[in-house]
Description:
Strand order of the largest sheet: 1-2-3-4
Amino acid sequence: xxxxxxxxxxxxxxxxxxxxxxxxxxxxxxxxxxxxxxxxxxxxxxxxxxxxxxxxxxxxxxxxxxxxxxxxxxxxxxxxxxxxxxxxxxxxxxxxxxxxxxxxxxxxxxxxxxxxxxxxxxxxxxxxxxxxxxxxxxxxxxxxxxxxxxxxxxxxxxxxxxxxxxxxxxxxxxxxxxxxxxxxxxxxxxxxxxxxxxxxxxxxxxxxxxxxxxxxxxxx
Length: 220
């Protein structure tokens, strides 16, 4: 019926992006500020501010198992977070593809516009102002694929993988092929467990430390 249910107040700038965790327990909002806000979807209260970027945060997305959260910023970085603890797990830096690029303009030309997870949770796609669509593997710190595109604003994986849709300032929606991957049994088990176990619940399990690190994405 279009009835307003709740209003979350805390930002002072325009809200560019919202992402709800697949388990429906959390919401992340990015509003062009240096911090993203993490909210409880059960109590509609602020859980924490995610602080670590040096410029405006404009995009965010949860992993399919809700165990990870990524934020993208004009500072040319993607930060991967544990949304349950607020810990920064990894930072992906957008380095210009051409080394001849003037270093003084690096931050501006690499400003990020959008980030999203692949359906199986092993890849990320990012769109930046340097006219590139990048695809990253979680276990690597450098992109595994590039695609030239101009005026990119947003990106989204197809639900079954294999393709990425991007939107541009020119009013176009473009489609790109993306790497297809057969998830390992280890990752499928981790994904299944993390769908219903929080980080704190994993850490409380009577299992070896290395297994806990794997399940909480401290090792990839």
